[in-house]
Amino acid sequence: MNLTVTDTFVNYGIGVGVQAFSPMRNAVLPFHVVQGHQVHGDRIAVVDNDRLAREDLEGFDAFVTNVPGVALGARTADCVPVLLHDSEHHAIAAVHSGWKGTVLKIAASVLERMHELYGTNAGKVSAVIGPSIGPDSFQVGIEVADRFADAGFPMDNILSDRGPRVPGTMNGGLHIDLWKANKWILMQAGVVEQSILVAGIDTYADTRFFSARREGPACGRTVNTIRLL
Fold first, then answer.
1. Each residue's pLDDT tens digit, 194-207
2. What sign does the dihedral 138-97-105-146 (CA atoms) show?
């Protein structure tokens, strides 16, 4: 498990026979990537060919396949991309897990679906938590924090109170660590901690990546990609 950074890509070495990366804002995708119209839900699409258009995948936030050569993409601009590789059964997934999808524990649902479809054992899965808004930048209101608490997350681990909120900045207030939250989801589902690679790149702070919170919702999207070779 390793991460390497070039001028245009963050590449993830998560296993033999799989390619995974997150492109920076100035990158050109090297091949066609199947993507969906994501809605911050928890629906999972099974992708068996690379001819599917975004219109064919309306309302899906996660994509799974066991077909070599079919590249799956999770579109993000602060939300958390989770890329999964089952080396034992040769299956992959690309997951869009914003804060709402994280509350829904979409990554755990994907692992369950991969088990049903391919026999995936979570203990044999490698996972990437890609570039996304970091804990220093994800300032939230009490209503969002309550959603995580109601969903059973370990709040002592993922929530911090940084004192009085400073208007117009990300200083102060309540902050949630979506990286830790998604890592907890994966581990609760059976993924081994050593098999989870956290990129640790804050898209709000790092201008090489799109950020809806920094640039507005009409900004571009990072297509976090995984494919079987």
1. 999 999 999 999 99
2. positive
